[in-house]
Amino acid sequence: MKSKLQIALDDVTMEDAWKLLEKVHAIVDIVEVGTPFMMEYGMEAVRKIKNSFPDLEVLCDTKIVDAGAYEADMAFQAGADYVTVLGVTDERTIADVVKAAAKAGKKVMADMIRAADLGKRIARIEELGVDVIAVHTGVDQQAMGRTPLDDLKEMRACVKHTALAVAGGIKPETIDEYLKYKPEIVIVGGGIAHTSDPAAAAEELAKHIRSTE
Ligand code: 5RP
Ligand code: MG
């Protein structure tokens, strides 16, 4: 099955986000309202993107850590198709986000950033019923030279039935290393947004994804 390509809109203004989406909306499958973008513009960003690009799935990178149902509902009501919840947080919170998604007919991605003992934690997260588990090396860890490749390998080996996503500094030059482990979703932020030609970068990423079909 072909991986979906998700563009993460992180350190961009609303105006920049619009220019970017006009260039890449026909190439990507999912648009992520990234955490810093959400902090700047709130749920209005989700609303505007979903209204303008109704054919694209929208993920709001809420990184929920508490008040699971309340925060997930805010994003679902604004039009998000997915919210994210942190895999390290309380299981009650994750379960509440899963319940809110089921009620709204939407999806949940668990972000495993900084989760310890991945194999054991993944088994629990799968039992809680999230739709996607994301391997994620955050930008601060990337600055220390880390990549999500080893974690993806480990997760692919232990996950039983849940879809996998991978994020953390992926670029056209490195995507093939990740595609070997068949992630259902490949998330790319800077590898598209921080290039001089975002449409060309997105097209190159999509080309690599298509070549795995
Ligand atoms: C950081 C994030 C980013 O959206 C994610 O890491 C993707 O961006 P990049 O490809 O630039 O790493 O959630 O916490
Ligand atoms: Mg993000």
Distance between the termini: 6 Å
**What is the helix fraction of residues, given as a range?**
40-55%
Rg on CA atoms, Å: 16 Å
pLDDT average, as an integer? 97
Q: Enumerate the spans where pLDDT stays under 50 for 5 or more consecutive residues.
A: none
Strand content: 15-25%
Structural class: alpha/beta
The count of β-strands is 8
Per DSSP, the total helix count is 11
Largest beta-sheet characterization: 8 strands, parallel, barrel
Query: How are strands sequenced across the largest beta sheet?
Result: 1-2-3-4-5-6-7-8
Order of helices and strands: EHEHHEHEHEHEHHEHEHH
Approximate shape: globular
Bound molecules: ribulose-5-phosphate, magnesium ion
Could you please describe the fold and organization of this structure?
- With 213 residues, this protein is an alpha/beta fold.
- Helices cover 47% and strands 20% of the residues.
- It is built from 11 helices and 8 strands.
- The protein has helices at 14-24, 35-41, 43-52, 68-78, 91-104, 118-128, 139-143, 149-158, 175-179, 190-193, 198-210; strands at residues 4-9, 30-33, 57-64, 82-86, 107-111, 132-136, 163-167, 185-188.
- The radius of gyration is 16 Å and the shape is globular.
- The model has no long low-confidence stretch (mean pLDDT 97).
- Bound molecules: ribulose-5-phosphate and magnesium ion.
- Residues 8, 10, 34-35, 61, 138-139, 167-170, 187-191 line the site of ribulose-5-phosphate.
